[in-house]
């Protein structure tokens, strides 16, 4: 059921759900309370969801393309197998959400909060996660393609055996993170000091990165 170009309230969405699984295109949900609604399999394209509440909503197998959701609240929502592509979700909240097998590609997630999420099989690719809260997330054995994790809170994260293809860890909080056998040769490690390298024990870095770390001590390599 296609729904296009409308501004929708909770009651509007509930009425549409009674008629089947909706496909929303260029719809405005700004500030709406869509908490606890069953939106399994729904499609959202070019929609606006600024400050929208999707608390504890069922969004399993939903698809999101080119949506804008500044400060949207996905706390405790079920997003199993959901797919997000080219969405702007800056400062959104995902606390305790179920993100198993969810995919984020080409998304802006600056300042997003992912505390205590269920994330087995979660994929981030070519995303901005600047200043995001990803504490205790496990991305072990993943291949991370062009993730900008600058200034992100990565405390307690598990990156063991992970391959970084581009991207940045510049000035990220890495307290308690693990990088054994991780391949960091493609990542930007700017801002890292030798005194901060304990989490990187056993990781692979390039000669250029090693020289940059030594330069932090004021030494010259000849």
Biggest sheet: strand arrangement: 1-2-3-4-5-6-7
Q: Could you please say which CATH topology of one domain applies here?
A: Pectate Lyase C-like
Structural class: mainly beta
Low-confidence stretches: none
Share of residues in strands: 5-15%
Number of helices: 2
Written overview of the protein:
Strand 1 (2-4), helix 1 and strand 2 form a beta-alpha-beta unit. This protein has 222 residues and is mostly beta strands. The model has no long low-confidence stretch (mean pLDDT 93). The N and C termini lie far apart (68 Å). It has helices spanning 10-17, 207-215; strands at 2-4, 23-25, 43-45, 63-65, 83-85, 103-105, 123-125, 143-145, 163-165. It has a domain at 1-128: E3 ubiquitin-protein ligase SopA (Pectate Lyase C-like, 3 Solenoid), CATH 2.160.20.80. The chain has a seven-stranded parallel beta sheet with strand order 1-2-3-4-5-6-7, with no helix packed on it. The chain has a two-stranded parallel ribbon with strand order 8-9. The longest helix is centred in the C-terminal third of the chain and has 9 residues, at 207-215. InterPro entries: 5peptide_repeat (IPR001646), Pentapeptide-BTB/POZ_domain (IPR051082). This is Pentapeptide repeat-containing protein. It holds the Pfam family Pentapeptide.
Give the tags:
222 residues, mainly beta, Pectate Lyase C-like, 7-stranded parallel sheet, two-stranded parallel ribbon, 8% helix, 5peptide_repeat, Pentapeptide repeat-containing protein
Give a brief rundown of this model.
The protein is mainly β and 222 residues long.
């Amino acid at each position: 059921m296609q729904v296009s170009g409308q501004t929708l309230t909770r009651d509007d969405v509930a009425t549409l759900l009674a008629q089947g699984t909706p496909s929303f295109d260029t719809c405005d949900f700004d500030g709406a309370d869509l908490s606890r609604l069953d939106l399994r399999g729904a499609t959202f394209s070019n929609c606006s969801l600024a400050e929208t509440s999707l608390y504890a909503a069922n969004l399993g197998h939903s698809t999101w393309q080119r949506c804008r959701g500044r400060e949207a609240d996905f706390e405790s929502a079920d997003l199993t197998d959901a797919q997000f592509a080219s969405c702007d979700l800056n400062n959104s909240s995902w606390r305790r959400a179920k993100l198993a097998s969810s995919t984020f590609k080409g998304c802006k997630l600056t300042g997003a909060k992912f505390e205590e999420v269920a994330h087995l099989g979660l994929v981030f690719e070519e995303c901005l996660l600047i200043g995001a809260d990803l504490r205790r997330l496990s991305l072990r054995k993943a291949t991370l393609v062009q993730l900008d994790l600058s200034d992100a809170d990565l405390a307690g994260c598990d990156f063991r055996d992970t391959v970084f293809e581009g991207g940045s860890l510049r000035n990220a909080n890495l307290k308690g993170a693990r990088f054994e056998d991780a391949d960091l040769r493609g990542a930007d490690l700017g801002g890292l000091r030798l005194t901060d390298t304990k989490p990187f024990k056993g990781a692979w870095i390039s000669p250029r990165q090693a020289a940059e770390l030594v330069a932090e001590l004021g030494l010259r390599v000849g």
